[in-house]
Amino acid sequence: MPVTDHRLPLGLIEFLDTSAGTVGRTRDRQHRALAGAVLADRIGYRRVWIPEHHGIGSASTNPVPLVAVVGSHTRHIRVGTAVSLVRVRHPHLTAEDLVTCGLFCGDRLDVGLGRGDVAGDAATALAGLHKDDAATRQAVTTVMALLDHGCSWIEPLDTPFQRWMHGARATSAQQAGEAGFDYCHGLFLNPDEDVCRAALTAHRHAHPAGRRAAAIAVVANDDRRRAGADAAVQGGVHISWAGTAAECAAAVVALLQGTDADEVVIAELSRDAADHAAALTAIAGHVAAAGAGLPVAVA
Length: 299
What we know:
CATH class: Alpha Beta
Low-confidence stretches: none
Number of helices: 10
Number of strands: 10
Order of helices and strands: EHEHEEHEHHEHEHEHEHEH
Largest sheet: 8 strands, parallel, barrel
Strand order of the largest sheet: 1-2-3-5-6-7-8-10
CATH topology: TIM Barrel
Mean pLDDT: 92
């Protein structure tokens, strides 16, 4: 029988900070992100996801081991990848690593796979691992088959898990639905909300029983100048809102009420650890206060 999930319709993407400049060493960003994940677990966020981004200063070049770490430090929140780039990863080794994550996350594991690519020097260095679109689709299929059924040398994942596909186009959403994946639309990659609404609707038609989420990047601080300064140094990420926590929460609620999203996943990109913790707490409080009329997921 389905179990109603009474945690907030709010998730967190951590380890996404790719800000320019010299302030904040990579290790500092990693400590801040881990603390954010632990805090989110305590105050009622539904899930925390970890991205894959290759570049100097990235706090998350390899999300799968970070999932195991976060899973071991939390008790209630779902933990997963958003995403693991199967285009440049071996499907069998990826499956082995995700099975290991199951030891630390139990039935809270979210397997988030993406067909995205790497760029810059990483693309050159990883060229020998690179797959074309057809091979990437097959790699996704292989990873999921191994998690479900294993093979002669890999045990299947022995706990329930959610399978997510991430994208920024309606075609990605439809493909996710047809393959039986839940779908998250990345507004921090493509800020067109009309495309987001169309994508989530396409997924609902293709997979009515599936879960749907929208992901946005925000910077929340009652000091608007500080919020704007932190937002200005982020590279390659569209910031949906930089302002007070109440304003960022209002953006979350508007997405929940104006799209087919069951939940909104935020990347809060305040650069100071105390600002980040305060923002996560305040946004959760405002979303909780909005309460009535917000979706409640079914696990």
